[in-house]
């Protein structure tokens, strides 16, 4: 009973501090913006981009966007024990609350228990700022001597200040505890934005500490928050283990405070001496410099080729080490899948079967056993696996490794337990498990995953086979894009490519790709649009039966949209969803499936549309489709040419047209 009471008391105090420290000063004195202005659009774009920066592992984000007076600067900071995905999730939630609470202020800041988010129209990186300052305290008094408690607290906070200020430009964060009178323990943290100097961090924290006697004297807990730093003390532990940062990762250089200038009187006293020194040093220094440069040239001229070779060797060694870390022993996988027992088969795709397995350490995996007649060489297979394995995003299925033995080629993936999206969305019973809130999160997760492939990964990738069966769902029904068997890498500066091998799935293919073999990021946008309309309607793109008539999905959606009966599009089981959100998703889906690829939005714009309801959406034009006896959707003007110029498999719409390699590579 005592432990239950203690747990309830802890929860109560967490709730109190959460409510108290979620504060939003909106500064009208720094100017206001108008809705849909350039500044407003820049602000939405900037804040929406935070969630895509999964490469940052240390909880500090500083970005800017725009030009001139409409340029927006933003800083996000999370507590040092928060994992990157938790940090991004909380910052994203804070972004929504901040823009809601401060609807037109050019400068605003919000503190939560775990994070701080601020934006402004002036450069703030490396600038230590003390205002605005907020504080709060627990409505619980310390027991015993207040003076002794304050002494213990002050000593603890001073030690934390030194530790936090000694951090690098990735993290200035410290936590610790100390004993206080009457068997009390004080748990505390100190944190600065890591862009400021150690001196400024110390100054900011000391000023925050100096507020404690005024705001929180005799209280068992409290906190003080400023734009550049924050402190907190508490009678219960409120933080977890501090995340360990990679010591080899180069931190960004913090902006240092400007040094003070010498006074004019000091300059006058030294001026004569300086002239004499300059008169001697400059000629001598010039000669020495010329000789030094000549020697350096002689040293570097011959060995330069050796240096370049050494760099290539180092790079090759790194790749070999990485490849070795990914390679599984074939027998290990064979045992894990129980000799590839059919009982463990999860599915069958164009590249081969997928099996569930369990390694000796208990880790559950999914193993794709590629067809033996793929015709792909071992080196080519291994190189492509290395590229895909470097893709890391919460909305992509992670490739853990591979195995090569004889003609056997295995791909080892993380196991995603809830099967694929089509397993739920097209089943009249199972689709009930996906209410609108879950479907909306699935749409947003797919969009962020595609955006990562198109813009944010070190490789620019066109997936080319986005469809409901290639969207896997984890324990929390978060989507993960899978099956990069048809993905195509393109150069960073390349906008589109061409291929004579049309791969993908009919019904999800963009018309310019299905007919002419032209693919681009907009091809994936088209597939995403079809996916969105399937998720909203609960219907396959292959056709909707209405009495005696069968109508393909795009025809059905466009007709109802044009006739003002868009509610007919919505899955009848979605009786708990926001009508505005659902209609907005239909609108976005139609924008993505327009026939002219130039009219389709980029995935950056799509993510912004999904996250910002204040953005007005353009009017969509008619989708590209024609209904034939099968289930493919192609522009009618091109159907004859398409059928005569392309040889196609007789597979149905839902089957993929595959090629041998995992990816087709374009040099970057």
UniProtKB/TrEMBL annotation:
One GO term in the molecular function aspect is: protein serine/threonine kinase activity
Region of interest (Disordered), ranges: 248-270, 633-668
Localization = Membrane
Q: Name one Pfam family in it.
A: PK_Tyr_Ser-Thr
Q: Which cellular component, as a GO term, is one annotated location?
A: plasma membrane
Extract the signal peptide range. Answer: 1-22
For this UniProt record, the keywords arranged alphabetically read as follows: ATP-binding, Glycoprotein, Kinase, Membrane, Nucleotide-binding, Phosphoprotein, Receptor, Repeat, Serine/threonine-protein kinase, Signal, Transferase, Transmembrane, Transmembrane helix
Which GO BP terms, alphabetically?
immune response; response to oxidative stress; signal transduction
Q: Where is the Gnk2-homologous domain?
A: 21-124, 130-238
Q: Where is the Protein kinase domain?
A: 340-614
Top-level taxon in the UniProt lineage? Eukaryota
Which CDD domains does this one have? Answer: Gnk2-like (cd23509), STKc_IRAK (cd14066)
Chain residues that bind ATP: 368
Give membrane topology per the record. Single-pass membrane protein
Output compositional bias ranges, type Polar residues: 254-270, 633-661
Catalytic activity entry:
L-seryl-[protein] + ATP = O-phospho-L-seryl-[protein] + ADP + H(+); L-threonyl-[protein] + ATP = O-phospho-L-threonyl-[protein] + ADP + H(+)
Q: What is this protein called?
A: Cysteine-rich receptor-like protein kinase 29
Q: Which organism is it from?
A: Glycine max
Origin organism lineage: Eukaryota, Viridiplantae, Streptophyta, Embryophyta, Tracheophyta
């Amino acid at each position: 009973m005592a432990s239950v009471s203690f747990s309830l008391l802890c929860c109560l105090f967490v709730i109190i501090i959460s409510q108290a420290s979620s504060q939003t000063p909106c500064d009208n004195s720094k100017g206001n913006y108008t809705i849909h202005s350039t500044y407003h659009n820049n602000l939405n774009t900037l804040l929406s981009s935070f969630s895509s920066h999964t490469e940052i592992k240390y909880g500090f984000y500083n970005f800017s966007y725009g030009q001139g007076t409409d340029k927006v600067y933003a800083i996000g900071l999370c507590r040092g024990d928060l994992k990157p995905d938790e940090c991004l999730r909380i910052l994203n939630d804070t972004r929504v609350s901040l823009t809601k609470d401060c609807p037109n202020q050019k400068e605003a800041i919000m503190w939560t228990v775990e994070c701080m988010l601020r934006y402004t129209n002036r450069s703030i990186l490396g600038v230590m700022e003390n205002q605005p300052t907020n504080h709060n305290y627990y409505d619980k008094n310390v027991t015993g001597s207040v003076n002794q408690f304050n002494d213990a607290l002050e000593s603890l906070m001073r030690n934390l200040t030194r530790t936090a200020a000694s951090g690098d430009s990735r993290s200035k964060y410290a936590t610790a505890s100390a004993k206080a009178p009457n068997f009390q323990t004080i748990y505390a943290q100190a944190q600065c934005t890591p862009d400021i100097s150690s001196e400024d961090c110390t100054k900011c924290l000391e000023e925050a500490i100096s507020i404690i006697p005024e705001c929180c004297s005799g209280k068992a807990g409290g906190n003080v928050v400023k734009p550049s730093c924050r402190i907190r003390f508490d009678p219960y532990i409120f933080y977890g283990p501090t995340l360990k940062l990679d010591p080899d990762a180069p931190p960004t250089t913090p902006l240092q405070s400007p040094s003070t200038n010498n006074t004019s009187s000091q300059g006058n006293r030294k001026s004569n001496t300086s002239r004499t020194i300059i008169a001697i040093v400059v000629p001598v220094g010039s000669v020495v410099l010329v000789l030094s440069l000549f020697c350096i040239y002689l040293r570097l001229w011959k060995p330069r080729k050796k240096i370049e070779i050494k760099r290539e060797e180092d790079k090759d060694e790194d790749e070999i080490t990485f490849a070795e870390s990914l390679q599984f022993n074939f027998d290990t996988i064979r045992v894990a899948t129980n000799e590839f027992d059919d009982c463990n088969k999860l599915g069958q795709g164009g590249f081969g079967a997928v099996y569930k397995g369990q390694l000796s350490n208990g880790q559950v995996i999914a193993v794709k056993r590629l067809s033996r007649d793929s015709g792909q060489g071992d080196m080519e297979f291994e190189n492509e696996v290395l590229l895909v394995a470097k893709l890391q995003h919460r909305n992509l299925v992670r490739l853990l490794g591979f195995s090569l033995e004889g003609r056997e080629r295995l791909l080892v993936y993380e196991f995603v337990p809830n099967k694929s999206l089509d397993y739920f969305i097209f089943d009249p019973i199972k689709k009930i498990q996906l209410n609108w809130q879950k479907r909306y999160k699935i749409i947003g997760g797919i969009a962020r995953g595609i955006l990562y492939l198109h813009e944010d990964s070190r490789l620019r990738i066109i997936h080319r086979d986005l469809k409901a069966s290639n969207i896997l769902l984890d324990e929390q029904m978060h989507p993960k894009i899978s099956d990069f068997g048809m993905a195509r890498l393109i150069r960073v500066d390349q906008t589109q490519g061409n291929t004579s091998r049309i791969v993908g799935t009919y019904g999800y293919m963009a018309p310019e790709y299905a007919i002419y073999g032209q693919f681009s990021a907009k091809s994936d946008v088209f597939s995403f649009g079809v996916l969105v309309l399937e998720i909203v309607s609960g219907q396959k793109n292959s056709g909707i039966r209405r009495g005696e008539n069968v109508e393909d999905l795009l025809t059905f959606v466009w007709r109802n949209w044009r006739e003002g009966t868009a509610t007919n599009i919505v899955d009848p089981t979605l009786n708990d969803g926001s009508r505005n959100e659902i209609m907005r998703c239909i609108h976005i889906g139609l924008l993505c499936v327009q026939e002219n690829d130039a009219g389709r939005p980029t995935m950056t714009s799509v993510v912004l549309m999904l996250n910002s309801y204040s953005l007005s959406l353009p009017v969509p034009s008619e989708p590209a489709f024609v209904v034939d006896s099968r289930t493919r959707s192609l522009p009618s003007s091109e159907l004859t040419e398409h059928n005569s110029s392309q040889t196609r498999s007789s597979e149905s719409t839902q089957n993929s047209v595959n090629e041998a390699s995992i990816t087709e590579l374009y040099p970057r």
